Structure formats: structure tokens, C-alpha cells
């Protein structure tokens, strides 16, 4: 059965409200148009700023409600929420009270797909771990009729492909707390890479953030993999009603068994190798020196993916991907060498813990460009990481002054520069860099003060650096 038929059977003749006209919801609207539904798109931006697609959809009969009060009067049978919109806005709550069903593009996909779902979430490492898991499965099943898909918070929206999927296919999904917040169906296998303060500008607190993450295993998951070294992840273990698998790059096998003696498996480091154990015996899988992408956090990402996919992927495949996977764009991505200085783009680093991990992966102390949108998360851990591992810091964006004050309070001895404009910050890094230095873009913040997303920020950095003459 094709995608449109599947969706049409699910939503019947319902009036549909689509909240947010973003990356995942544009193809959703296209599908709803094909289903013949009455559609209203709600977005703060006016139709001119929403672009050509919005104008085309308007001509096709889609109604647009825009402006500051775009969520005030939602009249629909089914509401599709964009991940960035909280579900507790008064207008959304009122519509639900009046009988509307609240869902999302991702929730509809999980409901309709026959494919086997593997889900990845966490505060850091989601995208790289999701990509490693996808690469492992793609390699393992390359000579079979099984198709491997990747999506969710990365790649292209998968709802439009649901009609071509079969029960033999596998989907690897990166899932954010925003997507998980209202989710009522979990992947068959789930991974929580780690948990630390993040997105506290959106969530009402750390408890709500962690609770949203737990939806990845609360609704029908058969296997949860999580990080035994992470305190918040350990706290979840006692309340999990499915098989537990643990990994840690810092704890021994015996220490993990003490934490959870009933875990089905343990992945740990010993003698510079990644090991797997079922609790009774252990086997060496990968020599960590063969992993191409740098940093201990990337060793953890491999350990997480291996634990998540144990029983689905062979040791031969694991070794092959370790030796061939060169990483994901915007994650410690080499841009160029100019006048003896290496420029690295790690725009994905939108939290202090990600920046700390990036700094620890480099062979020397870099000149770091930090700052961006304020997610209301503490910067003291960032100050500690910069003081220990940075040669100099250029601060830019909305959080520049805030980070500067935290560094000052920490009695920082490193050179700190404030440059309001992003381009000027990159140029300042070039001006102070000397031969054999590294300049690292690792913002420790989201991008929304100046860019639409971290990709746009990373591409702008690359554009500026590649224009150096």
C-alpha cells in the first residue's frame, strides 16, 4: 500500500492543523494535500517569509494562519505539532479539550511504518552514534534485500517513504527531546547516549527534559542501551521494564555488573580494545587505534552503537566501519590548512559538554570560537574545559558576555576576545593564530541567535575560512 493510501486510511476526512512550517512539516503538508484533507498551517512568520512552497500550497487550497497569535484559534480534528512547539500552549490545550487529536509527523511515521525501528537519543553524541549505527547496518545488509533508512532529527523526513517499507527493513532514528515529548510509541531498540543539562530554555526544568527522553523506551521498547558512566542514565535503570544493555568507556566490567547485575550485555574498554561481554565471558571487538574519528567521546559513540545493535551486526562489519568511517559534517570537520594553521568546524557542539569533548579530542590546545543562542544551561563546565584545554577563546553571539563573566569568575588565565559579529570572530581567530595552531569552531551554544541551524553556522564558518587569501 502506498504512502498516501496509508495516511488517508489513518486520518480519513479529518480537518488537519499543521503547527510550524519547517523541514519535516513541508513534506507532511504535501502528503496531506494528496490525501484531499482540509489543511490549515499555523506559523509565526507571514506567508511571504515562509517562501515559495507556502505560496504554492496556498494556491492549492491550504489556509495559512500567521502572526504573533498564530496558535490562538486552532480548529481541527488532528493537530500535527512541529517539534519546536510546546504542546501546552493555551490554544493547543483548548483544541484538545474540544476533541482534537495531537500528534506529529514523526509519531505518524512510527505508527504507520512496518519497518524495525532503532532509536537514538541523548544530550550529546546522538548524530554521530546514529550515523555509525546506520553505517553498520548498511554494510551488514548491503548484499540482501533489506533496506536501511536513517532519519528523525537528521537526514530527510521518512514519512513520505513509509509506503515502500517492509517488515524486513530497518530505520535508525535520531530523536530529540522535542520529538519524544509527546511520543506514545517507542522504537524496538532504544539508546540513551548520556544525559546532561540541555534545552532548558524550552523545557521547564531538568526533570521534564529527562522525562521526555525516557519516552524512547516507555512505550513498547524491548531493549534499552544506556551509559553506565552517566549518573542520570544510571538513575533510570531501576524503572526500566525491558532488557538493559550497558556501555562505558570509563568503568570496568565488574563495576558495571555491580550497577546492574541483570543487564543482558556490557560493552567496555580494556587494553585499548572495545570488549563485549554477556556477563560470563568477554570478547575483544575493535582496537580503538583503528577508529578514524578522533576523541574518546567517539570511542564511546562506537561502544554505544555496538551495544545497541548487538546480535544484528558482525564483528567483521564493526571493524570495517571503524577503519573507514571518517565522521559527520560539522563534527570536528577539517576545513583547511591556511598559513600553517588548521581550521576545524564543529558547529554541532551546542552544549558545554560537546565542546569539552571536542577539545579533548585535539592533539594541542586550540583557539576556540564560542558563543551563540542562550539555552539557559550553566556555563561553569565550559569555563573549566576552556581553562584546561584552550589556548585562547573568541566569544561571539548572544551568550558572549555571559560566558565572559563565567570565565572571569573562574580566574581564567587564557586570552579572551569578544567579537559581536560572527565573521569578525573568525577573522580575529585568524589574526591571532600562529603556524601550527588549530582554530576550532565549537560554540557550546545553539545557533538561533544568528543562524537558522548549526549547519548554516558551520557552512558560514567554512565559507569565511575558505575565502582566506
Quick structural gist:
By secondary structure, the chain is α/β, with parallel strands linked by helices. It has helices at residues 3-11, 25-35, 47-50, 52-59, 90-97, 105-112, 126-140, 177-180, 206-218, 231-236, 253-259, 296-308, 315-324, 352-361, 380-389, 400-409, 422-432, 454-466; strands at 15-19, 38-43, 63-66, 78-81, 101-103, 116-121, 148-152, 170-174, 189-192, 223-227, 243-248, 265-270, 273-277, 282-287, 333-338, 341-345, 367-370, 392-395, 415-418, 438-441. It has a nine-stranded mixed sheet, with helices on both faces. A six-stranded mixed sheet has the order 15-16-20-17-18-19, with helices on both faces. Strands 3-2-1-4-5 form a five-stranded parallel sheet.
**Stretches with pLDDT under 50, minimum 5 residues:** none
- The level-1 CATH class of the largest domain: Alpha Beta
Please tally the helical runs, counting DSSP H or I stretches of 4 or more residues: 18
Summarize the main sheet: 9 strands, mixed
Q: Could you tell me how far the N terminus lies from the C terminus, measured between alpha carbons in angstroms? A: 56 Å
Give the overall shape, derived from the CA principal axes: globular
CATH topology assignment of the largest domain: UDP-N-acetylmuramoyl-L-alanine:D-glutamate ligase
Q: What's the architecture of the largest domain in CATH terms?
A: 3-Layer(aba) Sandwich
Q: What count of structural domains? A: 3
Percent range of helical residues: 25-40%
Strand runs, count: 20
How much of the residues is beta strand, in percent? 15-25%
Helix and strand composition category = alpha/beta
Amino acid at each position: 500500500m502506498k504512502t498516501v493510501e496509508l495516511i488517508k486510511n489513518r486520518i480519513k476526512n479529518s480537518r488537519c492543523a499543521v503547527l510550524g512550517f519547517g523541514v519535516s512539516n513541508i513534506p507532511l503538508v504535501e502528503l496531506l494535500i494528496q490525501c484531499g484533507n482540509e489543511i490549515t498551517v499555523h506559523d509565526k512568520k507571514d506567508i511571504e517569509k515562509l517562501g515559495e512552497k507556502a505560496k504554492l500550497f496556498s494556491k492549492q487550497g491550504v489556509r495559512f494562519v500567521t502572526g504573533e497569535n498564530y496558535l490562538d484559534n486552532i480548529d481541527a480534528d488532528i493537530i500535527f505539532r512541529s517539534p519546536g512547539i510546546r504542546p501546552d500552549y493555551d490554544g493547543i490545550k483548548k483544541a484538545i479539550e474540544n476533541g482534537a487529536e495531537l500528534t506529529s509527523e514523526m509519531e505518524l511515521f512510527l505508527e504507520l511504518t512496518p519497518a524495525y525501528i532503532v532509536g537514538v537519543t541523548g544530550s550529546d553524541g546522538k548524530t554521530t552514534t546514529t550515523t555509525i549505527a546506520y553505517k553498520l547496518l548498511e554494510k551488514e545488509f548491503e548484499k540482501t534485500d533489506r533496506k536501511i533508512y536513517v532519519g528523525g532529527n537528521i537526514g530527510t523526513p521518512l514519512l513520505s517513504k513509509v509506503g515502500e517499507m517492509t517488515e524486513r527493513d530497518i530505520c535508525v532514528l535520531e530523536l530529540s527531546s522535542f520529538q519524544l515529548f509527546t511520543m506514545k510509541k517507542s522504537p524496538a531498540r532504544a539508546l540513551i547516549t548520556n544525559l546532561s543539562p540541555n534545552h532548558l530554555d524550552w523545557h521547564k526544568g531538568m526533570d521534564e527534559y529527562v522525562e521526555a527522553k525516557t519516552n524512547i523506551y516507555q512505550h513498547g521498547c524491548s531493549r534499552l542501551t544506556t551509559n553506565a558512566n552517566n549518573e542520570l542514565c544510571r538513575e533510570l535503570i531501576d524503572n526500566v521494564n525491558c532488557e538493559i544493555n550497558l556501555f562505558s568507556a570509563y568503568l570496568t566490567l565488574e563495576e558495571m555488573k555491580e550497577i546492574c547485575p541483570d543487564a543482558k550485555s556490557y560493552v567496555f574498554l580494556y587494553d585499548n580494545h572495545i570488549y563485549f561481554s554477556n556477563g560470563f565471558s568477554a570478547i575483544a571487538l575493535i582496537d580503538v587505534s583503528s577508529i578514524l574519528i578522533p576523541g574518546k567521546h567517539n570511542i564511546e559513540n562506537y561502544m554505544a552503537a555496538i551495544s545497541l545493535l548487538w546480535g544484528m551486526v558482525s564483528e567483521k562489519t564493526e571493524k570495517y566501519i571503524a577503519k573507514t568511517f571518517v565522521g559527520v559534517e560539522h563534527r570536528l570537520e577539517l576545513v583547511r590548512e591556511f598559513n600553517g594553521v588548521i581550521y576545524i568546524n564543529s558547529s554541532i557542539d551546542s552544549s558545554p559538554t560537546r565542546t569539552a569533548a571536542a577539545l579533548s579530542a585535539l592533539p594541542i590546545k586550540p583557539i576556540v570560537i564560542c558563543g551563540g543562542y542562550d539555552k539557559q544551561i550553566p556555563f561553569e563546565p565550559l569555563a573549566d574545559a576552556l581553562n584546561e584545554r584552550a589556548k585562547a577563546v573568541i566569544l561571539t553571539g548572544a551568550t558572549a558576555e555571559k560566558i565572559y563573566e563565567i570565565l572571569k569568575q573562574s580566574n581564567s588565565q587564557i586570552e579572551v576576545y569578544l567579537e559581536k559579529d560572527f565573521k569578525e570572530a573568525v577573522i580575529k581567530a585568524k589574526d591571532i593564530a600562529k603556524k601550527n595552531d588549530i582554530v576550532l569552531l565549537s560554540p557550546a551554544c545553539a545557533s538561533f541567535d544568528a543562524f537558522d541551524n548549526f549547519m548554516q553556522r558551520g557552512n558560514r564558518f567554512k565559507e569565511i575560512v575558505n575565502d582566506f587569501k
